[in-house]
Write a structure and sequence with these properties.
Blueprint (H helix, E strand, L loop, with lengths): L14 E6 L9 H11 L2 E9 H7 L5 E3 L6 E3 L2 H25 L4 E8 L1 H8 L4 E5 L20 E5 L5 H15 L3 E5 L4 H7 L3 E5 L10 H9 L3 E4 L2
Length: 232
């Protein structure tokens, strides 16, 4: 029988940022975000990103979409799409507030335009944790489910000083989630990380500071699990 996790301890981090957009997989991270915020005693900060690429595409002449249920096509209406996105944002705000209330966490929510991962990274301030979840199922065609953490909690070991604090955070989260803790060097090839099949990856923010804009996306695509980015 596994031992119950220790009571949550204040981690020193201020907020946990979690992003949403029109794709359904981004909202499967809701329950995980609430658990993490409770585990490390942070506020929950939701960011809904209105996909600028989608809005720009809808404004192009002759742009159509194929309806999943009927297989029929229809012209894209930019105004209707924006209304649908705002309605989805309101739904996510309501659900996040409900989860924050149950987890006894303070909660905030904002809506921005841009690309999900890059916009979420841009919203981060000093002391913020960022929960990233790559998406590939469109809303509302997919079915929303609770995100299951099936693999170990993996820490990308930082090269800079301050790594002990990040390891303590990772071990605390692993204990709360009742998962195995493993560590991997920051320079581990992406293909190798995929083979380790982590359930949650915790990465230092400086791992991506000197990289190109697509580095975060390549990383989340490779590990195929939620990624928690933390300042060292």
């Amino acid at each position: 029988m596994s031992n119950p996790p220790d009571p949550p301890q204040k981690s020193g981090y201020r907020r946990l940022l979690v992003g949403f957009n029109h794709q359904i997989e981004s909202r499967t991270a809701l329950d995980l975000a609430a658990k993490l915020a409770e585990a490390v005693q942070t506020e929950l900060a939701g960011v809904f990103v209105m996909d600028q690429d989608l809005l720009d595409m809808a404004r192009l002449p002759f742009t159509t979409e194929i309806l999943r249920a009927s297989r029929q096509t229809r012209n894209l209406d930019p105004a209707a799409i924006e209304l649908e996105l705002r309605a989805t944002a309101e739904l996510m705000q309501k659900q996040l507030r409900q989860l924050a209330l149950r987890a006894h966490r303070q909660c905030s929510f904002r809506t921005v335009h841009g690309h999900l991962l890059r916009a979420l990274m841009a919203q981060a301030e000093a002391g913020d944790l960022i929960l990233l979840r790559q998406t590939d199922l469109p809303w509302p065609g997919g079915r929303q489910t609770v995100l299951a953490i099936d693999g170990p909690v993996m820490l990308m070991t930082p090269a800079a000083a301050g790594g002990d604090g990040l390891e303590n955070l990772a071990r605390q989260i692993a204990q709360v989630l009742q998962k195995t803790f493993i560590a991997a060097p920051m320079d581990t090839p992406l293909a190798k990380l995929s083979e380790l099949r982590p359930g949650l990856v915790i990465a230092p923010a400086d791992m991506f500071e000197s990289s190109d804009d697509k580095a975060v996306e390549r990383f989340t695509d490779a590990v195929r699990c939620p990624v928690l980015i933390a300042p060292v």
